[in-house]
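Lab notebook, bench 4. Still working through the backlog of constructs that have no structural model yet. Next entry is a single chain of 349 residues. Request: give me the structure tokens for it.
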Amino acid sequence: MYLNTSSSSSSSNSSSSNDDEHIFEIIINLPRPWTFRNRFNPLENYDDLDFKTRFRLTKNTFMMLLNAVGTDLKHCTSRNFAIIPEIQLLIALRYYATGAFQAVLGDHIQVHKSTVCRIVKRVSKRLACLRPFFINMPKNQNEKQEVLIGFYQTHNFLGIQSPNSDIGEQFRNRKGYFSFNEQAVCNSKIEIMNIVARWPGSVHDSTVFDNSLLRAQFINNEYNGCFLLGDGGYPCRSYLMTPLLNPTTNSEKKYQKAQIGTRNVIERVFGVLKRRFPVLSVGIRTQPKTALTTIVATAVLYNILLKLNDEMPLNEQLLDNNLLEELPLLPVRQIGNVVRNDTIETYFS
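Model written out:
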């Protein structure tokens, strides 16, 4: 009798090899060990100058901001080394100041990039909730008069990366890149008084305004005696003064000069805002909803820093000249031409 030992040996080796591969697959798919790293605290490790350069505000302003939102950012537990409000706010401010990848920000503070993502969303929501306290249109006649006088003394006038979804093309603007279309109103002190941040870049300026609460308020004469100034992308209305297509008379030329000079204040606001928080320039790498919250949060911070006289870091360019590009006049019925012509003849002749 003969035994087929070669076949048995081959079968045994094959089974052993399969077992080894299975064990190896289990090992490589095991979750990585959960490690806690010593977190870097920029508030303790940077002096005043370096801190302001990296976070766009002073330590005193940071502490004031922390007092305003810190309670809402505090975790209800101390388990698993929960991140304290101080570090959460620093992570969000660093994101606003650089627009860097979340993994890079995480490496700076020694936290995971997914943690950075959640913190940016959380802090942005809390800062955006401060909007009613820091972004407001004039509420009474004295405040309206202050705005009017400010503009008169100045110019003698009266008054993103592509979203990863099927709706990406909605965010492509007229210049060909992806963005949001934000509407803002400011006063002569370059303070933001109203902001609308919810429309994709493909939506026209006039559509944003026509669907805003601000338009309804002007139609209801809540700001009677006041004008809004807009560029050629807006239709002329009885409460919205736009530039003339071809000024010829001296009165029209005076109006055109005053209108453009006064309106450039809002262009300067956008320039300062984008330089103060470069995340608005380099692209917001978050979900669209979080990106819109981030825009409002940076607008709130912008006004807070203005009120506290927290100036821009040194050697910063304040104005992006590309923002001064003139838009062509909107080819729609300009129903406010009568009011605009009357204004020109009454105040600029």
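Notes after review: The CA atoms of residues 296 and 324 lie 22 Å apart. The radius of gyration is 28 Å. Flag for follow-up if needed.
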